[in-house]
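Chain A, query sequence.
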Amino acid sequence: MKMALIVDVFPARSDNFGYLVHDQASGRTAAIDAPEAAAIRNALTHRGWTLTDIFITHHHIDHVEAIAELKAAFGARVVGPRDEADKIEGLDELVGDGDTIELGDTSFAVMATPGHTLGHVVFYNAEGGHLFSADALFSLGVGRMFEGTPGPMWEGVKRLRALPDDTLVYCGHEYTESNARFALSIDPDNAVLQKRADEVKALRLAGRATIPFTLGEDKRANPFMRADAPELARHYGLEGADPAEVFAAIRKGKDNF
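Chain A, predicted structure.
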């Protein structure tokens, strides 16, 4: 029987999530992004694991700040997006869309998700059903479109939407409660969204995280995943428009919410 991948989730910085992924067969452990050295070190100590790898999704400081310290301390291999190699110091291996990275017996597919940043990638472990989406996809939201344009960002979201419903998504930030408020303002009659918003409120009141979340539920509740739904086009007076145009309107709406 194949040994499983263990995912450890912990808070970092003010509202980031930190992740350690541990391949039981080999004992190798990767950090998904490097938001904060102390938080990652504490998680490693708590689990009794040693950091061997760091997988980077994009160049923003709250995802790369701890690379140098962790690399110096553990000699970890650092893998990151080829298209942002000029913006990230300390990368040992460059990857892009369609590549696969191995962590012991565990494989991760690299998928390009441009928009939040132009070279943003996500890591998808198909066998275990784990998607590490960083800031390309949040629970009930997506990242701000800092560098990209709506068309390619919508195409990236559609690629993630095509993954299996039972995929567990681990995103970069705890933004779900504010995302739910915005989503309800533009999609108020969505019963799946209403239920998710209630669950999120209860989780946050209890001091608990809202991730991981299941992709299938998010496909039905997240307005950014539903930019091709007629009711959202209607909300923005864009009936018959290209879904990328509706996606842009939703993103602008969230920016100004």
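DSSP finds nine helices and twelve strands in the chain. The CA atoms of residues 9 and 19 lie 5 Å apart.
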